[in-house]
Amino acid sequence: MDRPQAILFDIDGLLITTGGAGARSWRWAFNELYGIPADIGKFTDAGMTDPVVGRLTFTSAIGHEPSPVELATVISHYLMRLPEEVASSSGYTVLEGVEALLPRLCKAGFPLGITTGAVEAAAHIKLARANLNRFFTFGGYGSDSADRGELTRKAIDRAGEILGSALDRQRVLVLGDTPKDIAAAHAAGAIGVGVASGHYSKDELVEAGADYVLGSLVEDLPGVADEFSGAAPSKGQMTTGQEEMA
Fold first, then answer.
1. I need a surface site. Which of 141, 147, 165, 167 has the fewest CB within 10 A?
2. 6-18+93-245 adopts what CATH topology?
């Protein structure tokens, strides 16, 4: 493919894993407010936005739909706890390839952004421990929309505002480790790159419709390898549709 005009990254399971810091923060928030240490894993799935996670967990654990004030209060408590949990998490890990890839992309002039179900404050808290915020100039967050496709579209629009013209969405890579990330990329009209760095295998990401599939961020991104001096051609696995287009 042609040189990407922008590259968007999910956070959890792609750039980092917090070692359960988010789940512990939600548990603390519900326990602090209602005396119920709610486990979000029982009520939600990977790839959901934070407001949806809060709403579904509240409804199941407390027994009724949260009012706007109740939901705002739970999310605020979650965010108050999150920095402490991230800082103290023994399982916090920067995933393979990240620390080498991001500076190389920046130096090569690729605009980098975030697309995540986390609300914006939570996204920055999670990235801060590894000093990764400095690589990203724009993003779309769970605080922008409960719909992953919509928040991804907003991220792409923000990149266009920064660069001074709208992007060709078929030259925007959206990287993620879950089927929801791939669905969001396609809903936004972008290229979905599945990375099997989380709970889903390469085969599962292919089944989810990923345009390209990588085993980790050590592998070359589509359209990027030739931009690095002396780099070999991309080793990323093309899915059937992309092979036909190549």
1. 165
2. Rossmann fold (3.40.50)
